[in-house]
Design goal:
The protein has helices spanning 24-28, 56-71, 77-86, 91-104, 110-113, 118-121, 123-135, 138-184, 189-195, 201-237, 239-248, 253-274, 279-286, 293-307, 312-319, 324-336, 339-395; strands at 2-10, 13-21, 37-43. The longest helix is centred in the last third of the chain and has 57 residues, at 339-395. The radius of gyration is 28 Å and the shape is globular. It is mainly alpha-helical. The chain folds into two domains: 1-47, no CATH class; 155-396, no CATH class. It contains 17 helices and three strands.
Length: 396
C-alpha cells in the first residue's frame, strides 16, 4: 500500500489529508476521498535526491498532472500556478512556475518565456501551452498534454521492461569476461608457457586480447572516447541521413521506431484537430514533436502539398513512408470530413502495431543475445581447456 497526501478545497480554504491505496486510481474510489481535490502527492519512504539521477520526464508529467487536476477543480490557470508555487516543488519546476507567473502578468506569451526550458519541458509541452492560450482552451490543452505524456511514459516503461533482460545478460557477460581476465587466466600462464607455439587458435586469440589490454589499455580507452565523440559529431552533422536509415533500413529496430513515431504524430494531430484547429495548422505544430529530422522534413513536404491543393490522403501517399491502411483511412476522412475520429483511429492502430513490433523485437533479440553469449562462453571454455587437454596428451 502507498500513502498519499491529498490537498483539497473546503470552505474556501486549502486543507490536506493522508490516505492509503495501491494507486491513484484506487485512491479516487475510496469513500474518504475528498471533493474539490487540488493536488495529490505520493509519500515516498525513500528519496534519492541526487539531481543527476532524477527522472525529468516523470517530473514534468507529475507537474502537468497537478495542473490538470487544479484546472478541473474550477481554479483559473493563474490561481493554479500560485497554488503550486506555495507547495514543495523540485527546483527546476519551481523556476518554470515562477516564469509562468511572471508571464501571466506581462505581455510575453508563456511558450516564449519558457523557451530556454525547451530541452527540459520538451517540444510537446510548449506546443500545447501555446495552443491552449491562443485558442482560449488552456484547460483542455493541459488535459490533452497529460494524455500524451501518459502514453509516452507508458511506452517508455514497456520498452525498458523489454530491454531490461537483454541488458542484464550483456552486463553479466562483460562482468564474467573481466573476472576471467583478472582471476582465471593468471592461474593458467604456466600451462600456456609450456605449450608455447602449440597453443590452439582460440587460446592464441584470448592471449592476444589479454596482451593488448595489458599493454595498450590507455590507448584503447582513448580510441574509444575519440571514436565515440567522432560518431556523435558525424551523426549530428548528417542527422537527416542517419534518421532516415534509423526509420527505414535497420531490421527489427526500424519497425519499432516507425510505429512509435507515427503513433505520437497522429495522436498529437488528432488532439489538435479535436481542439478545432485546421488540419494544416495541426500538422505544422505537430511535425516537431517527433524527434526525427527525416519525419519532420517529410511532414513539411506533406504540408506544402496540402497548401498547393492536394488532398490530405494524396499528400500523405506521395511521401511513400505511410502504409496503405493509413492512406485509406485518410481518404475516408477526406470523403466524410470526419478527421477527428479517423485520426484517433489511426493513432490507435499505430499504438497497437508499436506494442506488437516491440514484442517481436524482444522475442527475436533475446534468443540472439543468448546465442551470442553461448558462443562467447564456448570460446572461453575452449581457449582455457584445450591447452590443458593437449598438455595431458603430451604427458601421456
Amino acid at each position: 500500500m502507498k500513502k498519499f497526501t491529498i490537498y483539497y478545497q473546503k470552505n474556501q480554504e486549502i486543507q490536506e489529508c493522508i490516505l492509503e491505496a495501491k494507486s491513484v486510481i484506487e485512491l479516487k474510489n475510496l469513500n474518504d476521498y475528498p471533493l474539490n481535490v487540488l493536488y495529490i502527492k505520493e509519500i515516498k519512504k525513500f528519496e534519492f535526491n541526487l539531481p543527476t539521477f532524477r527522472n525529468h520526464k516523470k517530473d514534468i508529467y507529475e507537474f502537468f498532472s497537478q495542473l490538470d487536476i487544479m484546472l478541473h477543480s474550477h481554479l483559473t490557470f493563474s490561481e493554479s500556478v500560485d497554488l503550486l508555487l506555495d507547495l514543495e516543488q523540485e527546483k527546476m519546476i519551481y523556476e518554470i512556475l515562477d516564469i509562468m507567473q511572471q508571464s501571466l502578468s506581462s505581455s510575453i506569451s508563456i511558450d516564449e518565456a519558457l523557451k530556454k526550458y525547451k530541452k527540459y519541458l520538451g517540444e510537446t509541452s510548449l506546443l500545447f501551452l501555446k495552443l491552449g492560450f491562443e485558442n482560449g482552451n488552456i484547460k483542455e490543452s493541459i488535459h490533452s498534454l497529460v494524455e500524451i505524456l501518459t502514453q509516452d511514459i507508458q511506452s517508455s516503461e514497456k520498452l525498458h521492461d523489454i530491454l531490461r533482460y537483454p541488458m542484464v545478460l550483456i552486463f553479466s557477460l562483460i562482468v564474467s569476461i573481466c573476472m576471467i581476465f583478472i582471476y582465471v587466466l593468471p592461474n593458467f600462464d604456466f600451462v600456456f608457457t609450456l605449450l608455447e607455439d602449440d597453443l590452439p587458435y582460440p587460446t592464441q586469440v584470448l592471449l592476444w586480447i589479454k596482451t593488448m589490454l595489458e599493454n595498450y589499455s590507455f590507448f584503447i580507452l582513448l580510441a574509444i572516447i575519440i571514436g565515440t565523440i567522432c560518431i556523435f559529431y558525424i551523426v549530428k552533422k548528417y542527422k537527416y541521413f542517419f534518421d532516415k536509415i534509423l526509420l527505414l533500413n535497420i531490421p527489427l529496430l526500424s519497425n519499432v521506431m516507425k510505429e512509435y513515431y507515427f503513433y505520437r504524430l497522429f495522436l498529437s494531430i488528432s488532439i489538435i484537430v479535436t481542439s478545432k484547429y485546421q488540419f494544416q495548422l495541426a500538422i505544422s505544430n505537430s511535425k516537431n514533436i517527433v524527434n526525427n529530422l527525416y519525419v519532420q522534413k517529410t511532414m513539411q513536404k506533406i504540408l506544402r502539398s496540402i497548401k498547393n491543393g492536394s488532398s490530405v490522403s494524396d499528400a500523405f501517399d506521395q511521401s511513400k513512408i505511410f502504409d496503405s491502411l493509413t492512406i485509406k483511412l485518410l481518404h475516408t476522412a477526406d470523403y466524410t470530413n470526419e478527421y477527428e475520429s479517423i485520426l484517433l483511429d489511426i493513432a490507435i492502430q499505430y499504438k497497437k502495431r508499436f506494442l506488437k513490433s516491440l514484442k517481436n523485437f524482444s522475442s527475436i533479440m533475446e534468443p540472439l543475445l543468448i546465442l551470442l553469449i553461448s558462443l562467447v562462453v564456448l570460446w572461453l571454455i575452449l581457449a582455457i581447456m584445450l591447452p590443458i587437454w593437449n598438455l595431458g596428451s603430451a604427458i601421456n
